[in-house]
Amino acid sequence: MQTIAQSERKVIVFAGLRNAGKSSVMNAVAGQEASIVSPFAGTTTDPVRKAMELASYGPVLLTDTAGLDDEGAVGNLRVSTAQRMLLQADLIVYIIDGSAGYQETDSANLKLIKQSNTPCIGILNKADLPFAPKSAAPFIEHQISYISYSSINGDKNGLVHFIGANLPAESSETLLGGMLHRGDIVIMVVPIDLGAPKGRLIKPQVYAIRESLDGDAIVIVCKDKELRSVISRLNEPPKLIITDSQAVMRVLPDVPKGTQLTTFSILSARFKGDLAVMVDGLKVIPELEDGDTILIAEACTHHEGADDIGRVKIPRWLANFTKKDLKFEFSRGNDFPDTVSQYKLIIHCGACMLTQKAMHNRLRITALTGTPLVNYGVLISYLQGAMPSVIEPFPEAILAWNELPEAAVY
Amino acid sequence: MQTIAQSERKVIVFAGLRNAGKSSVMNAVAGQEASIVSPFAGTTTDPVRKAMELASYGPVLLTDTAGLDDEGAVGNLRVSTAQRMLLQADLIVYIIDGSAGYQETDSANLKLIKQSNTPCIGILNKADLPFAPKSAAPFIEHQISYISYSSINGDKNGLVHFIGANLPAESSETLLGGMLHRGDIVIMVVPIDLGAPKGRLIKPQVYAIRESLDGDAIVIVCKDKELRSVISRLNEPPKLIITDSQAVMRVLPDVPKGTQLTTFSILSARFKGDLAVMVDGLKVIPELEDGDTILIAEACTHHEGADDIGRVKIPRWLANFTKKDLKFEFSRGNDFPDTVSQYKLIIHCGACMLTQKAMHNRLRITALTGTPLVNYGVLISYLQGAMPSVIEPFPEAILAWNELPEAAVY
After folding, report:
1. At the top level of CATH, which class does the domain B6-165 belong to?
2. Of A192, A210, A232, which is closest to B214 when you measure between CB atoms?
């Protein structure tokens, strides 16, 4: 029997109020296919999860949830365990009992789901009974595709294909996604400072080199102080320069006309997170006040040097820039708070140790409360005055920059 | 209390015949320093090992051995457990009971130790008693430095300093050791074939890039098919080209005059093993006969593809080159046979997963029986006709090449 890692399975979460019929819908999907390949590891006694192959749509993990009654009340900003499970879904199947009609809680739940940008489809269940008036209203209000269904006489095959067709596609994005073509020269500026790990390169550097080679591009790697020499020894300007964020102001004057510039962190923001959201997050900086609390979230647990970037440098730079007396809290590794509304700003590391999906889950949590999130590199480039030069290759980020309030643009 | 990893401790092995006084010498060394920093992990009940700080010479692990009586008889090519422990020493302290005189076995043991190139010093023990005639003869015969000593009235301090001063220095070698200087351009040719790990670079490539940056050199990374384009776009020829072994014949025609060429494997052979020994190992290739057995030793346990370099390609290439019906055996991971005399040749991987010391231990085992050992890259360059071009940067390897029998040089 082939073993499929949990991370390769798309997570489908069945959600709704207590009597909406979540379990019967999930069982219809699970029973549709005889090929349940394996009970999900560790959950054989747990009836609410089923790992299976969903028709031609690939491996999935079906997850039933406790009822979401009274959970999503507007204004309740704490993310409950059930809601957190929702945010980890690749697809939420939200079920409303059409015969009973919708509740206000349904509408609040769907608002929350939409705010978090989690993909969601709807099932108007119990179609064998007469539907109550306007029972699909919350789906319509939040622009959620839905079908009606009955576990008594419904089309199970149609249900499976409705769900399968709405599963999000595999992300095909990469760090450099589409920036380089065959024969292009890219210069990567890698200052070797005290924080650099001994004897090796950090992950985004290795990935960027490998991706460039995969695309038949030519990679030049040098320290910042060699950049001018490198450019003078080439017959033509490079297509792109990627620099470590901390060297960006030393690199900027040496960038030839026509050469694009960006940073490893900005590539990570785009690949792992959402660059436009992070550029938008900069809007809060001119509004920061004495006593505001800022969360610095670092996903890896490296040993902290005396001049650690997250613990020491960023708080210092931000305090210098804003001239405010700011409070900093720190989260490390897999810890990320359920509640982020108390923070005026979240400053996240480059997320090289997080999967794209894990970073997206964090962005969903911040999106729920509208809490601004930037990453180290976006912030550092901003504080150093290197915006918008380093985001010029990315139109969606330039759009976000142009929409920042005047006070935030220098 | 500071914890020191086993691998950072230099291993001092006290060896000799059963009544030579090994334990009393070791105890004199151990007792000399009150600062026994920690019992060696897992060996607190094992009286034959002591981890300690040896005066100003750093952390060591003292190891007593069972007597080596009758172990090293000439012609007995099997490496016993006790002998294997010897080969893992950073320094062997070989003890002869001067009052009893030496045995033939002492001479045989020391011959074995010298053959394996393991550093060794001698103690002529029991100096409080009258020495038997010629008791130091085996030390003199094998050019081993020695002192006389007595655990009754000897100079313990002198003993400690004799041992400490003979500990081998930390290896300061690196992959590129001394090949590059500030501003030099090095081109690394990295063909991305089916065997390349997905999305990343292999260790020697990452290390070579990082070392070059540490030395303020400029690194260009490209596929082999881009090499000509890269060189044409530079104002000056590069100082050095390092290629993957398998691309060496495609790279060779594009190397500008005055540019040095080598391969990642040859750098590994030099860094982790002994390049001259491996070049010398090529001498056996024209002598291979039908039915000869060859060991292919791979230190990592990667998944084997259909065209695996160690399992498939190298046996095929060698059979084609020699036109002989050769037998191949395989060892993987940490397995390496105690007995290698049955092999006509050992072909070792690049050893990126082995420490320098572990690779040296393997070379000691092969040196004992004079079994030729080459690594993948040295062999591939040879079979492809790229010798001696790729070893030209290394005088000691060129010397070994020039001393190969005529039949081995093409």
Report:
1. alpha beta
2. A192
